[in-house]
Design brief:
The chain is of the alpha/beta class and about 375 residues long. The chain folds into 2 domains: about 130 residues, Aspartate Aminotransferase, domain 1; about 240 residues, Type I PLP-dependent aspartate aminotransferase-like (Major domain) (Aspartate Aminotransferase, domain 2, 3-Layer(aba) Sandwich), CATH 3.40.640.10. It is about 40% helix and about 15% strand. A 7-stranded mixed sheet has the order 2-8-7-6-5-3-4, with helices on both faces. Strands 9-10-12 form a 3-stranded antiparallel sheet. Helix 1 runs antiparallel to helix 8. The two termini are about 35 Å apart. This is Cysteine desulfurase.
Length: about 375
């Protein structure tokens, strides 16, 4: 039976979310319509918004449904930048961010005159707080500070409240990409001190194609999409009520701690392949992430060999799948190109078992040995 250890890419629908989603698909009505069927759809939509808001530590009016985490990130990054005006053109971005952020700020740099200030991360993938403080002290034209709550590749948890406090002292809005943290850490817009949080339903057992931007009612962003004025005029368009219902059901589902199973996986990999190096913070990391580099191996080779053995894993972010280059996260942490290419990310989910971990550990040593031989042969050609 295939073993799935790539839950950070997407995780299976929870049974409760599937049942709620399917039931909602049978209800007809546009939530913006004023007839009874439309208002029935609106009630269903707003109840779902309440459930998502509770899970994000914010008010329902602060939940803006999007097509997923990528749109939520783009709405926040571009929207805050455009709202800042001509006097604030600088965006503070740590190295090692998800490509939803990286590509958005680089687009703003090319097309909108943004000045991107790349901030360093340390060898564990943690943002250097002193560098953020220095940048905020040096520049008076900062439009936005944006960063990951937990790194999507190596799992390191960032010092969220320390960073938001620094930005608040300088009057700088903060957006946090919480996609990788959501469902694994207590994520709260209110307690974090952020102005906006991006999340995605399919990472927590909800449907694909829906996410949310938790946007403080005091925050101002320019929308990406116009035409209808739905959702505080921040995101226009007919809202997908059934997907929101599935999202709400997943958001209500209690989180299962995966720390014990993750630690079993980490210990097993270290025992099976002693030369493997755990990347990211060994303690302050999300509970489902185990990220390793394997010296002398190409991560792609390891992935395909494990896949042939019935075990699905990842070399990094699924959003960059198929691009044969070393992870910018690992390079930002100071790894060499050769070391960064030997990366594998194992991520657990709500249906992961000890048997899944054991299957990986049984297949891993042979895969590493074969990948190492293939890697050295490639270098010798």
């Amino acid at each position: 039976m295939p073993v799935y250890l790539d839950h950070a890419a997407t995780t299976p629908l929870l049974p409760e979310a599937r049942a709620a989603y399917i039931a909602a698909l049978d209800l007809v009505g546009n939530p913006s319509s004023i007839h009874s069927q439309g208002q029935g759809a609106k009630r269903m939509l707003e109840e779902a918004r309440e459930h998502v808001a509770t899970s994000l530590g914010c008010d329902p009016i602060e939940v803006v449904f999007t097509s997923g985490g990528t749109e939520a990130v783009n709405l926040a990054v571009k929207g805050f930048f455009w709202a800042a005006g001509e006097q604030r053109r600088r965006i503070l971005v740590p190295r090692g961010e998800h490509h939803a952020t990286v590509d958005a700020v680089e687009w703003l740099e090319r097309h909108e005159g943004a000045i991107v200030e790349w901030l360093p991360i340390d060898s564990l993938g943690r943002i250097e707080v002193s560098a953020v403080a220095d940048a905020l002290d040096r520049f008076d034209d900062v439009a936005l500070l944006t960063f990951l709550w937990a790194n999507n590749e190596v799992g390191t948890i960032q010092p969220v409240e320390e960073l938001t406090a620094l930005a608040a002292a300088h009057g700088v809005p903060v957006h946090i990409d919480a996609v990788s943290a959501y469902g694994h850490l207590p994520v709260s817009l209110r307690q974090s001190g952020a102005d906006a949080l991006s999340v995605s339903a399919h990472k927590i057992g909800g449907p694909l194609g829906i996410g949310a931007l938790a946007l403080s009612r005091t925050a101002s962003v320019v929308p990406l999409i116009h035409g209808g004025g739905q959702q505080r005029q921040v995101r226009s368009g007919t809202q997908d009520a059934p997907a929101a219902v599935g999202f709400g059901a997943a958001a209500r589902h209690p989180h299962r701690s995966l720390q014990g199973l993750r630690d079993r996986l980490i210990a097993g990999v270290r025992s099976a392949v002693p030369e493997a190096v755990l990347r990211g913070d060994p303690v302050d990391r999300v509970d489902n992430n185990a990220h390793f580099t394997f010296p002398g191996c190409e991560g792609d080779s390891l992935l395909f060999l494990l896949d042939a053995a019935g075990v699905s894993v990842s070399t990094g972010s699924a959003c960059q799948a198929g691009i044969p280059e070393a992870s910018h996260v690992l390079l930002g942490m100071g790894l060499s190109d050769a070391d960064a290419r030997g990366a594998l990310r194992f991520t657990l989910g709500h249906d992961s078992t000890e048997a899944d971990v054991d299957a990986l550990l049984a297949a891993l040593p042979t895969a590493v040995e074969r990948a190492r031989r293939a890697g050295y042969n490639d270098r010798a050609v």
